[in-house]
């Protein structure tokens, strides 16, 4: 009997160590509960019209495809001069894993040449230039131009904020063509389905 209890004690310790290692390897604090009703913090801002429009269009597409993803839309906040930033400390629900992260740039294509637009990541460790993501996407084209930032959000050495600057050949036309500030869209999948 002592052997059986010792075995279970050792097995429990091994499982605890694995759980701790995987928890530390996780990139997000997946501690949000899936409560239907929550207290809304006082500092929550109303999403931009472009974000709300894209949310409605995207969820309509998700329903048509009968896809079971969680999608989160996050407006940017102002960084340094002409920068748009998002926190990299993204909350997620337990059992979720990041599938993709895109910055959507809502522009009026009658004013701006889409081929000349790029995003420059501004950080101490990364100055990458992002080109438009033109492959199939769940996000309708009316949402804006898509820039894939999944690897930059998921990077182990990430900073507290992901900040980008919009690069265009003619900055003057960009000002007239930008319909709303860019916003971040993340998709999450369940990873502990049994």
TrEMBL record:
Q: Does the keyword Signal apply?
A: yes
Record keywords, A-Z: Signal
What domain of life does the UniProt record list for this protein's source?
A: Eukaryota
Where in the sequence is the signal peptide annotated?
A: 1-23
In Swiss-Prot or TrEMBL terms, this protein is called Uncharacterized protein
Taxonomy of the source species: Eukaryota, Metazoa, Chordata, Craniata, Vertebrata
